[in-house]
Amino acid sequence: MSKFIRKKIAFVLTGMLLAIVLISCEAVPVAEAPSPEVTFTNVSSSPVASPDGELSASPAQLPKLPYDYAALGKAIDAETMKLHHDGHHASYVNNLNDALKEEPDLQTSSVEALLRDLNNVPENIRTKVRNNGGGHLNHTIFWQIMSPDGGGEPTDEIAAEINETFGSFDQFKEQFNQAGGDRFGSGWVWLVRNPAGELQIVTTANQDNPIMDGAYPIMGNDVWEHAYYLRYRNRRGEYLTNWWNVVNWPEINKRSLASMQSGN
Length: 264
Ligand code: MN
What we know:
This protein is mainly α. The protein is built from 10 helices and 3 strands; from the N terminus they run H-H-H-H-H-H-H-E-E-E-H-H-H. A 3-stranded antiparallel sheet has the order 2-1-3, with helices on both faces. A hairpin with a 5-residue loop joins strand 1 and strand 2. Helix 2 runs antiparallel to helix 5 and helix 7 runs antiparallel to helix 9. About 10% of the residues have low confidence. Bound molecules: manganese (II) ion. Manganese (II) ion binds next to helix 2.
């Protein structure tokens, strides 16, 4: 073999080696592991139904109560809880699925996305999606922000921010209860993070959710009569007062943190 050919072979081999090294160094794209829970795409801001994920609409499903019907007895009786979850919340879920049954494209949106952009929903089903999508979202939040171990003073970051914004926890409770009591007819009273990033108490009518106004719902109380009528009759104020005995501060802290990362 001539010196020239040996040089040429060495050159080609070196080139091949270099190519192999370069190829093996290139980042290999790894498919993201699919989450078994989350079944939708295009989540542009923090999930609202739970800090863990948005609500699927393909189809919408009734979440399990995270405790027994009787577990919130410090504020709400077992019979009311059963009717509220198995009856009212279940119908919002069924009615939402019924509204979306001819709309496969909308079913790929999360419930939150539908509510943020109701103009994208055909007019003939818009009110049904608003009321029942809102009902599904509101109640999903509601069950999580209550707990049998709840009540007492707020904890962690939300405690400090409540004091800063409202003066004290007592003043916050008073304003929240006042707003809930003044909400005419059926609706909700909320602590939200408004688009300016501040804590604010707001109320919504019917099953509207604060995300429809660009705010992130941190906690909310249901002031529809179906939430308290069996035990409290027409005494909404007494229900509002007792409700603080089951408020789940650790979950509310999680939601407050999510609200700060939210583009809502
Ligand atoms: Mn309700």
